[in-house]
Structures are given as C-alpha cells and as structure tokens.
Amino acid sequence: SHGWTALGVAKARTRDVAGAVTALRRAVEIDPEDGYARKNLGGLLAETGGDASEALGHLTEAARRLPQDPQVWFALGRLAEKSDRTGDADNAYRRVIELSPKGPMLEAAEKGRSRIAQQVFRERKAGLRPDALAYCQGALEHFKGKTQGQIRQVAFEIAVLGMKGLDVNSPATKYSLRTLPGEFSEKTGRGGHQEQDSWRNSLPPLADVLERARAAHRLLGEVHLSLGNLALEYRLPAANAWCDAVLLGKNRTGQPQALIVELKHWNTSGDEPGPYEALMLRDGDPEAHHPSDQVRGYTLYCRKFHSAVLEQQAAVDGCVYFTRLTSGHPDFAASFAKGRYVQDRNLPRQVAASLKSSDARPFVLLDEQRRGFAVCLRVLEQVRQRKDRRQVVIVQGLPGSGKSALAANLWIESAERFAEAGNIVFVTMSPRRAARARTGNRPSRSTRNAPRLDS
Questions:
Q1: What's the CA gap between 266 and 201, in Å, rounded?
Q2: pTM of the model
Q3: What mean pLDDT is predicted for residues 3-24?
Q4: I want to staple 1 with a disulfide (CB 3.0 to 4.6 A). Which of 30, 203, 256, 302 is the partner?
C-alpha cells in the first residue's frame, strides 16, 4: 500500500487529480489500516470537490489512527467548514492549534476559527448576539471611571492573550487578566494593588516602545507580532523569581534569542550609586538592590539552568526599561549611538577581566542572594581600606535559602579581588553547633579545636 500511496501523492503534486484518487483508493483497498493513505485520499477529495461523505469517512478513520497528526485535523476542519458544520470545524481547528505550536498550518487554523466566529456572529437574528451585547454592556460598566491609561493597559494584555487564540464561541471559557483581580491573584499572590499599579504604569510604555520599534525595524516587527513571542510575568523554572517581560525570537544570525526586560516605573531623580557595585542609594536605603543586577541574575540563571536555552543553544540577554524618565543626557546618547570599537591592549588587564567572568561560577544568584553578595563584598572592601580593622559577617537562612551558593561565590570573588588584603576566614556551623552558640553553651572537647577554612 505504501507504493500506491507514494504514487498517489506524486500524481497529486503534478495536478493529476484523477490518477491520484485512483492510486490512493487502491492503497486503501490493499491496507484499510493505512492511516496515511486515508489522510491523503480524504484531504484530496475534500480540496478538489470530490465526494464529501467519502472524504469524511477517510479523514475520520485517519484521525482515529493518527490522532497527533495536525494535517488530518486541518483537513477535517476545512471539510466541516465547507459543509457549514461550524462546531465540528472549530473543534478541528482548535486541535490543529494544540498540535502545531508554530508554522503556516497554525496560522491557517487561526484564520479558520476567525472566519467561523464572524459567520456565527452575523448569522444571529437581527445581526447581533444577545450574549455579545450583554458582554459589551458589562465591559462599559466595568470600565466606567477608569482612565485612558488603565484601559490601554488592559487592552494590551487582552491583545497579547489573543495572540494565542480566544474561544469566542464558548461563553463558559474564562480568561484571567493580571491587570484585573481574579484567579491569577489567588494562585500567585502577585495581583495586589502594588502589583496592579506597577503593571498599569509600565505596560503602556512597553507597548508603545515595542510598537515604535516594530514600525522602525522590520525584523523586530516580525518577532513582536509572531505567535507566542512575548511572555509577561514569566516565572523562572524551579525558582521563585518572576521576569516582567521576555521577548522571544531569533537574532540577526538566526540563533534563538530571549531578551528579559525588567520594568521599573521609578522616579530616579534622587538615586545615587551605592557603596558597592549592584547596590544603590534609593529612598534613604544605602543598600538597595540595583535592578540591572537583578536582571543579570535572571539572564545567568537561564543560560545555566533553562532546558530550552541549553537544548537549542539560545542566547539570553537582559535590560532594565525605566518607563518614567526623569533625567537624560541627549549629547551622550547621540555620541554613544555613534561610538566605535576601542580595544584595551593591556594583556594583563584583559586576562584579569576574563578571570572575573561569571561563566565558570558553580551557582547563579538571584534577587536577595545577589543583594547579600554585594553587601558582603562592600564589607570586604571596607576591611581592605582599613587593614587595622577586623570584621565578622554572619549569613543566616533557612535550609535551601541559598547560603551555600552565596558562600561559593564569595569565596571565588574574594580570592580574585582581595588576595592581598590578608587572610579571609570562612567558617560553617552545623545546626547543632549553631544552636549551642545561640544558647551560650560551650562546645564539647571533640569539637572545640575543629579546623576552620582559610583562604
């Protein structure tokens, strides 16, 4: 039967419809269990105006034998749509969307669902659906009193959700929006008033800059408008850390690319550099965590631990987008845009910079771990400047909070930066010894002279 199936497909490609149908029918006669022969025969009959009932029989049998083949379901959807069986057509197109996360077939299935939705909407008596009128009236009531910015923010999230397809024919289907209180808030705890205000202030500027970028750059426009290439409030795998927005697509070399965007609607007029890198002075806090270091932690984490990034060798970069610009430097911005490459030819300096690369680090720090890392380095820097001073830094935390990861990174960094400052002693305690230390009990003779780790 495979030979007859191949012959039928070849004849169909040369537009010999009659010869293709004859060959494919012969393949089905030889092996009625051949799902591929039935798929090609049913699809050919459906597309060329053949016997619709025969086409339906072959495609139904093919779907039973090839349930994961999106081509079968697309052919069933096309046949049902031509036969005005809109419910069956919509279900078949939905199955195609589930099985085809990208590609021309996915786009064709989405267009098919759109045609069905428009047809069902217009076929209602008086030209309008009562449920649609009720939804519109409810929306008007809900948005009464809201500002244009608030409405734009909700509309932007609905548009992003619509990129994945909305089931407009099923009133029972519900969708959760981060910008409106609902199921998302209950499950994640990230939908409070502060979170909503943050999104309300940051999403419209993000939508605006993406739209301006799309209009100015054709390649970026394709990335922005393709299905599934913008993730909002993305949680990193196996981590309690959330990325505000992730742009997904391909870079200029064709390599898969993820760009993590941290959104901050901050008034930065009073901010100053902190006492150490990754720290900043903000709102009276001299050890506030700088958002650029926060997003750097996200990028390093994805490069090391994200399955899709590792399997597809994707590039991951990040940036912070301050959606409320309170100060600027147009002259520097213009010169930066026209900047040229300048190499530091001092070989020792280049080698030293390479040694500080994070690629060889055993752990990637996130959020509070990174802030604690920066605070500890600030203390070491103070000790180096005042060699007559000794300092003890105690790092406490529950099991699994990341103390070991913090210690490993501190060990590497201190060896690279502060080797000339003298001995830096790292001491670890077991939970039992820590408990004795807190209660003031003296350690036993067996542990009193326990060795310590020096670097």
A1: 10
A2: 0.41
A3: 87
A4: 30
Mark residue 361 as left, alpha or beta (left: phi above 0; alpha: psi -120 to 50; beta: remaining). beta
Q: Between 39 and 436, where is the model more confident? A: 39
Q: Residue 455: CB partners within 8 Å, gap ≥ 6?
A: 411, 414, 415, 423, 424, 425, 426
In sequence order, the 6+-apart residues with CB closer than 8 A to the CB of 437 are 429
User: Tokens 């898969």 appear where?
Assistant: 256
Contact (Cβ atoms closer than 8 angstroms) between residue 189 and residue 242: no
| Cα(64)–Cα(47) distance, integer angstroms | 20
Strand partners, 317: 259
Per-residue pLDDT tens over the stretch 409-422: 777 777 667 655 55
Whole-number pLDDT of residue 164:
60
Structure tokens, 53 = 């009932």
Give the tokens for residue 93: 């197109």
* pLDDT band per the 50, 70, 90 thresholds, residue 356: low
Distance (Å, rounded) from C-alpha 79 to C-alpha 86?
A: 10
For residue range 423-435, what is the model confidence (pLDDT) as tens digits? 666 666 665 555 4
CA distance 71 to 40: 9
User: pLDDT band at 394, cuts 50/70/90?
Assistant: confident
| Phi, psi (degrees; rounded to nearest 5) at 321 | -110, 110
CA-based nearest residue to 87, from 117, 67, 109, 62:
117
What is the spatial distance between Cα 360 and Cα 356, in angstroms, rounded to a whole number?
Answer: 9
DSSP string, 215-267: HH-HHHHHHHHSTT-EEEEEEPTTSS-EEEEEEEEE-TTS-EEEEEEEEE---
The CA distance from 195 to 75, in Å, is 45
| Single-letter amino acid code for the residue at 128 | L
Q: Could you tell me the pLDDT band of residue 446, with boundaries at 50, 70 and 90? A: very low
Task: Supply φ then ψ for residue 217, to 5 degrees.
Answer: -135, 115
Q: Report the range of poorest mean pLDDT among 42-46, 108-112, 407-411.
A: 407-411
Two tokens, residue 449: 């002279």
